């Protein structure tokens, strides 16, 4: 069973890398790029829609929502683009995942702004 879960996780990771490359491809329509970018950003984001510490529901996004988003995004990408991206994803998995500190910093900044805004609203509500 552990081997099946490990294979499932590896396949999920491979599909995320395929979507990562599809976002950069000019042959993909803008609306598909937008949806795919959201799925990839959510997959790479350390912050979940449903926090993992909530019993049972915490892993719902990791087990159901993320694979569902990946599946929908893969169905929207043209087949020829998908084939090219699969080759690139396999190469990336052999070499290791990319590190984009700028995008990571932007994600952290956005969540920081949201947190500050929420704290300010709570403070205003209490006073």
Automatic annotation (TrEMBL):
InterPro entries listed in its UniProt record: DUF1232
Please state every residue range assigned to the domain named DUF1232: 33-68
Query: Which locations, inside or outside the cell, does it occupy?
Result: Endomembrane system
TM spans, by residue? 101-120
Ranges in a coiled coil: none
Task: Give the record's membrane topology.
Answer: Multi-pass membrane protein
Please classify the protein's predominant subcellular localization into one broad category: membrane
* Taxonomic superkingdom: Bacteria
- Cite the entry's keywords alphabetically: Membrane, Transmembrane, Transmembrane helix
List the protein's name.
DUF1232 domain-containing protein
Q: Which organism is it from?
A: Solibacillus palustris
Q: What is the lineage of its organism?
A: Bacteria, Bacillati, Bacillota, Bacilli, Bacillales
